[in-house]
Queue: 4 jobs
Job 1
Amino acid sequence: MKLWTEKRTWVNRRAKSKLARLSTDDIDSILVIKHAAYGDLLCMRPFLVTLRQSFPKAKITLSTIEHYQRGTPDDLVDHVHILPTKHKSLMARFHAMRELGHHTLLFDLTESTPSFLLSLFTSAEFKVGYQHRSIHKFIYDVAILRAEYRFETETFLEQLHVLGLQYDWPPDYKMPITAINRSKPYVIYFPTASAKNKSWPAELFIQLIEQTARQYPQYDHIVLSGLADWEIEVANKISSELKTYQNVIKLAAGKDDTSLIKGANALVANDTGIRHLAIATETPSVGIFFYATPFGYWPRFGGHQVVFERDGSVPSVNNVKQALDLILDLE
């Protein structure tokens, strides 16, 4: 196999010869390390899809971390390895790091202390990771710069360039779900996030939904509640204020979320994993940003919109509605 590098790619002096000794048929075991929450586990699906297409004979193992299991793409891999959290004993964590055995290829998509240690202790013919200070020089055969302003899915896929692998565009997430059939088309509004200070104010969601419920009476407008008590309170407040609108409906989060979002005409959400789910299910979305930078979560495909102010302030109802109008006016 040929090694494909650019000027700023870090390459171990033996990397080219090591990879040259391997052929596609030699790739029988691949380890991918991704210790991350729900959204990033969804974002990495095209990476695994490309590996499966490129190396159909290989067994793929995905290393995850214990406290982030929701969204694990176990349908795309042969084995899921779970690294214990730091609350477990050092012996338990060390044992978990040494139980993976030998692999032909290793990809570290995480860039964290646990992933560095796991990459170091795991035997592999060829290791690929991200550049991090000087740590990568002691672990990987090739390390690339991590793009900070590109959509996360693309950032992960860039590691495959060093092997000359080609991936589908738009990225193929291969989500194994079927859309829910409802009597009317619908828009979903997910008003909360991982923390209250990351959530667009409920009062603004109320104003937005009131306007869209009037302008688009042919749609149901679904307020989807999160799981935490405070998220339920927010959803209840919004639906209560809009109870006079028969096309505004509140639904609780549950096992059918994926199918519900797959069937939606659009999703409006904060910077949260639910929006990543919309991206993975090919549902057009409006992402509202003010707490975090939007660029890593802004896919330039699939009709997805992001709304943010250049000064970092909370986006207005008018700007969010304009983004949603762009989607619904194309229906």
Job 2
Amino acid sequence: MKLRYLTLFFNLSLICSCFAQDRFLESDVVMDHDTMFLKKEMHKISAVVYNKHGDIGYFENGLREGLHKEWFRNGNLKDEINFKSGLKHGEFRYWDDKGQLLKEGHYVNDSLDGFIKEWYHNGNIKLEVHYKNGKMHGLRTEWYKSGHKWSEQQMENGYVVSGRHFYNDGTEITHGNFLKH
């Protein structure tokens, strides 16, 4: 009788541990329409997915949740993006394959929101712009690859309302205001 209960307990423990797995190798899952499934059964997963470089991120009921990472083939980090219920939400960063930071900013419910910065591959600043509800809103400044300012534009709900452009030596080329519709 004890052997029968022991065997039953062992089998139940084995079954529970199979279903309770909370980590899957990237090759064991498949992404379809922004939802992650276990390849064998095509069930939505609630687990961490990882590869040889580290944890890719956590999925809750198949949707991305929290910090997610991608790497280049050479092992350098490609991006870090935060998610909430499958939507980009929170801080993000993108790098090139040599490790140079290219872009950083913030998402709210899959839309850019807040201060966004971009850099050239040489490390010089390329762009600074503020977003509100997915549209450029506020000062937008761009630079030449050399590091000199190229333009300043005042944005409202994605439209340019005023701006100035500069030659690479800093001399102003044009300036003006635009009519609002």
Job 3
Amino acid sequence: MRVLVAGWSVRSPACSLHDAGYHVTAADAYGDADLKIRGIPVISLNEALQQRAHYDVLLYGSNAEALVESFPGKISGNSADTLRRLADIRAWFDFLDCAGIGFPPTWFSAAELPDHVQILEKNPSRHGGTGVRPWTGGKIPRGSILQEKQEAQSFSASFFASEGEVTLLGVTEQLGFDRKISETLHVPGYAYCGNILLRDWNEELLARLTSIARCLTREYHLVGLNGIDFIMGEDCEPLLLEINPRWCGSFELLERIPGFLPAIAQIEGQLPPVTDLPVGAVGKAVLYAPDSGVHVPSNSLEWLQDGMADVPMPGEIIKPQHPLCTVFAEADTRDACLNALLVKADLLYERLEKNHAC
């Protein structure tokens, strides 16, 4: 079985499937060392479109909608029809409203905006936070919406859908909405920069998220792995931001659950028995290149031995505010896990500064 794993960044599922014995090709925008040292063929998304008939199965992430529309083989995950329905953003918010699922105040016209409220402009077709920026006035770009910026933390929940039923797999805190974290990781704007998967959550919250996931699944006929992003204030009521009906960056943290490989569950279309996370918190942080950019040192492959991922090849030039690599940590508590991630980030930036000074 020839598996095509396609998307903006698909290192995690491609490596997991390859290590499990699958014959994998990755259509990936970065083509990092993780893929190359395994001998995984790396092609562009355009090449994947041209060569799509060569593959039996497609597992996709973000920016692969055109490939999903035209892929002739088996699609692991949601269908092209589901993606099209979810792309109708007005219908999406109308459905949430009718279903009683909360979301932040949202507008499609600047004329409707209230006074003295902080507003974010969002383009739902752009993934990974790249389509989010503070609203500065003017005409709303085509495909964008306006949403009230609220003082709340940002989270995501992962679930597996099958035949109208769902299994909630985990809830993560999203990094990057804390100024200290963003500055440490050199994150541009609201770009995605990682998650912390926590084992222990309030049972009422888990029940509410499961109910939301089930409601979305039955309306949109979701299958396989999906993610929802939401914010939550002191009242602990989740306000939905968006659904990610495709492979998400947070899914690889679920691999820390004993015996569970989410990429295999997605390919096979069925969920094995899932147990609890064996530690209190597991996290990943995406490091971005600082304003000076990064000339990747000759020993960058050693980063893989240090447990890093998405590692660039020696000699590459990483432009300012572009992804550099990913670090991981686990601990008994959320705070200890976050601290470990930031320490690893600081250490790498220090090493890069020393190399640059030499």
Job 4
Amino acid sequence: MEKKDQTRRMTRILLFVFLFFHNYIYIYTNGRIGKNLNGRPCLILETVGAKTKLVRKNVLVFLREGNEICLVASRGGSERNPGWYYNLKKNRTSVIFIGTERFEVTSREIFEEERHEWWLKMDYLNNGGYGRYQQRTNRTIPVIILSIT
């Protein structure tokens, strides 16, 4: 294995470990610690598993405009959508925590022009990361809007 490949692999491993601990701390402290990740706002999305019916919590980068919150179901550019996406498709109502604030929300997937507008904003927030993720995968990465109820 080339040194460059080893460096990439180690970087991915360290990033995975860092994100795991960030997510754990954010969830464990009920939003008191970890509501930002490298300057990007994060929320805790609490859904009910589409198959298991168990409560699932995910920490996600988001963009809020008024009562609308945008999420991108990128899963790092993987060929599969993240589990939380299917959970929201099965049950459109869920709960989010932004810091220590709790909100009930309803979700909807957006398409075409609306998706494009939110995509550009989210990609800018993520320093072009979502665009790079889209290049890695053959699927169209879903964009979800949560509306605070």
